[in-house]
Design a protein that fits this description.
101 residues; 4 helices; 3-stranded antiparallel β-sheet; 4-stranded mixed β-sheet
Amino acid sequence: MGCRFCGGGDGWIKTCRAPDGSRLRVCDPCYGPKASELVIVPGDRVVTARCDRCGVYANPREFAEVRPGGRHGAFSGTCGPCAGEGVGGSRTELLRNGGER
């Protein structure tokens, strides 16, 4: 099911409540200009991704690369901090160091 306004969207489209109380799905480009009118609410599916390197679960939009078919049906790939490991260390190292690079 696509965006109520443009018909587009992706696998992790937002579910929102409109001012009249109805629930609708909205893609990121359409949500921006209507953000003051819409409230993001839990949808019928939870979408998460698991990093193959450090094991953290997070929003797939925060990943450098993501693909379907991971552990427990989640997307999998490489989170942003692990993708930039050569620049500052993995998320696991950041957690061990109290967030210090």
